[in-house]
Amino acid sequence: MFKYEYSLKRSDRRTIAVKVTSDNTIKVFAPRRTPVSVIERFLNEKLGWVERCLAKNNGNNAVLRDVLACKSVLVRGKAVPLHIGEKNSFSYDGISAKTPKHLKKLYLQNVGGDFLKLFTCLRQKYSFSCQSVNFKDYKAKWGCCDRYGHITFNYKLLMLPESTWRYVILHELCHTVHMDHSAKFYALLSSIMPEYEAERKVLRAYDAIIRLY
């Protein structure tokens, strides 16, 4: 028997997989007819990896404790006080918002322009083309590029350090050339951002923020 609780989703997939989300939810995906005994044997073989993920999440979330409790909020990676229920105002020393839903507008008005300047600079520097760029309140991802070249970013990126902006921007721009995460995609990304793996790890430390607000 596996020592941790987990959710199980069966489908027509051929293999078993396990995912640990930033809030330490363990999700297992398995073929429809796979016996539970086989699934749990797989999980026990992955126990070391699962526990490393749990420990890493606990460390990341401890650093973000006040942010996750909505006592503070990040602005370009720096934590500042957050006050909910008073008024809508933004400064690099603190933010007030009538409700968490007002945060998107505050960030777009005050930080969004700098993000878009960086986007344009990188797009032109590396000769990418796209149809449009926008922001959205995603709950499970930092960015998205559709097959027509429309790129949408999670506005919560504006809360993070600018180095993560660069990584996510280049990641999505590379999707205008390769829609999948194939070897060709990563070869292109690596050619313009050799340190992308390190920045991806930094970004993952902030995953818990995605589901906030």
SSE layout:
Layout: E1 7-11, E2 17-20, E3 26-31, H1 36-45, H2 47-63, H3 65-68, E4 72-75, E5 78-84, E6 89-91, E7 94-97, H4 103-110, H5 112-125, E8 132-136, E9 143-145, E10 150-154, H6 162-174, H7 183-192, H8 196-204
Parallel strand pairs: 1-3, 5-7, 8-10
Antiparallel strand pairs: 2-3, 4-5, 6-7, 9-10
Any idea what the radius of gyration is?
Answer: 19 Å
Instruction: Kindly name the structural category.
Output: alpha/beta
Q: Counting H and I runs of at least 4 residues, what is the number of helices?
A: 8
Assign an overall shape.
globular
Q: What is the CA–CA distance across the termini? A: 36 Å
Question: Could you give the order of strands across the largest sheet?
Answer: 4-5-7-6
Walkthrough of the structure:
This protein has 213 residues and is α/β, with parallel strands linked by helices. 40% of the residues lie in helices and 22% in strands. β4 and β5 (78-84) form a beta hairpin. The mean pLDDT is 94.
In short:
This protein has 213 residues and is an alpha/beta fold. The protein has helices at residues 36-45, 47-63, 65-68, 103-110, 112-125, 162-174, 183-192, 196-204, and strands at 7-11, 17-20, 26-31, 72-75, 78-84, 89-91, 94-97, 132-136, 143-145, 150-154.
